[in-house]
Amino acid sequence: MKTTFQSIDRFYKSLKLQTKLTITHLVIATIPMIVLAAFFSTKLYDMIVADSIRTEQGASAQTVPLIEGTISQILNVQTQITGQDFYKLTLSADRTEPLSFLAASRSADDFQKKVERVTDGSLVTDVKIYMDVPQDDPAFSEYPVSDTLLPIKQAYGTYWYGIFKGDPTLTKMFCPPFYLSSYEIKHNGDMAYLTKSSMLYNGEHVPCFLAIYFSQEHFNALLKDNMASGSSVAYMVNARDNLVATTDSALSGTYHFSYDEIQEYFRSSNNFILKNVLGEDVYAGFYNIKNTDWYMVVAMPSQPIINKSIEITIAFIFVYIACIVVAFLIATLLSSSITKQLSAVINQMAKARTGPPVALPAPDTQDEIGDLISTYNYMTRVINQLMEEQAKSAEDLRIAEFNSLQSQINPHFLYNTMDMINWLSQQGRSQEVTSAIQKLSRFYKLTLSRKKSLSTIANEIEHVSIYVQLQNMRFHDKIDFLIDVPDYLMEYAIPKLTFQPVIENCILHGILEKESKQGTIVLTGWLEENTVVILISDDGIGMSREKIEDMLNGRGTSSVSGSNIGIYNTHRRLQLMYGLQYGLTYNSVPGRGTEVEIRLPASTPSKYTDKTAKENDAENSLRESHLVQALNLLSRPEINLYEIAEECGYKDLQQFFTEFKEHFGYSPEEYRRHVL
After folding, report:
1. Using alpha carbons only, what angle is made at residue 359 by residues 356 and 360, rounded to the nearest 5 degrees?
2. Which of 24, 77, 397, 600 is the most exposed place for a label (fewest CB within 10 A)?
């Protein structure tokens, strides 16, 4: 008996795949079940869709008035605030009293009490008035109402302030969390209603903003509490196509409709419509929220409805399924030997989409599946070998290109600085010579250190500050350099020599080409989600779009310093390290100035924390002081190189030469020839 079973098993394994599939198809009798299921699902699906839409419409019809009622409460608070005597007097066109006088008045006390009453935490969380008034005005610090009055400077950098600045006709706006600063969200509220007015200050009309802060969670709760189906999603968007509130952030992104589409669908139909979103059928309804530019969208995917109809269909044919269970079991037993190995091959092939393919165990059959596995294993070995070779080649190419770009730093700054030091030395201005040499030494220490390719924003700011100081020594303090970077950005990582080429271009091709040879450079920065944004602007001569494109492509030239390769190198380095979405973006107006936006991912460089690293840092500091001393001595021709090396603590002249060139990029002899 055992021998017979083994013979049958061997015979079956030797059968061709087509024969096995023929046997399986003959055994499985599923056609009547498929026909019956299709018949019932067609009828039931239409009924379930109609019922689901009717239920969701009823829930939405209850939600919209609740949202509009909440909006009315917020608008009522705004009306109460603007109706206060203090607010009216502040914005009065006939006012002659200074702002500080109003802040000390009885009406200011009444106003502050009113603000405290309306911000009880149930809906409105805070009330602030932003004024375009100097920050040192006593009204902002010396009176009870100072908690509500804020200088407009605190709104700088917020998205809502940028919107009002960009649209002078805009007077009011509901702001989702995206429009607010992180400070506002933490201390005031994550949504706000802004109204713009003007006030009289020192005889001039200046802008004034009333901000009513409230909680987004209140709207999220209204949407969630009135959802009829757990598989549906409800969300609200504003006229700028920004998300206001949602029951599910992931689903609202998946079933997103643009604001223009929503308006079109809302005008064309009062009922739910069927739309295809990302290949999936979705029933969607659209509702306008009064007194806002908001629309509420309710999206109901069809798949749960289909699943529900399938479940009911299965219930109808359950008895029939019981009759074919035996046939199904036989089909499973017969097909398992086929699908087991075939599924293994398919699964391994699917994994190759996200990683290198992995070989399968050697086949134990001689049919088409066995041949397929053998061929797949051979292909896997070849592909892995090619992937390894390609990865190594790509990495070698990336490193070579990156190093090549780093090596193309324009040396004219060094030569010009040396000329300046030589001139100062000839003039007998020894203190300025020492200062210039120390600055130059620190500049090239930050530039040429080879331990790490990354620095911090703080170090890069120090680097360009030294550069501007040296340039001001050359050009008699013609350049004003303003830095406005928040402290939280200082420790973020940035490739070395990112700022300097941009600042150099601002000076040489922007400010110094002006008739006055004088100008201002501003460096600021902020964090956008996981991206660090640095903005460098100048008031130079500006440049055309064609010139910007040529410069970023490495084709730009200038009559001042020749090639603009430094800008191209910086742009390419950032893209090589982080990707094409990062790098430099130029915005320039000829005759007015240039803005350069630098974008890179937010990360922090690794720190040396072990004892050895700290000891090495101490040794490097001592070595640096000796090399700075050497720069001073090299400017004195009466002292030979052997004496200089010994004076700086070097017993070996060759070691002195090696460390000097490694630190500064040129030998002591080359430096002395240039200076003297």
Report:
1. 140
2. 397
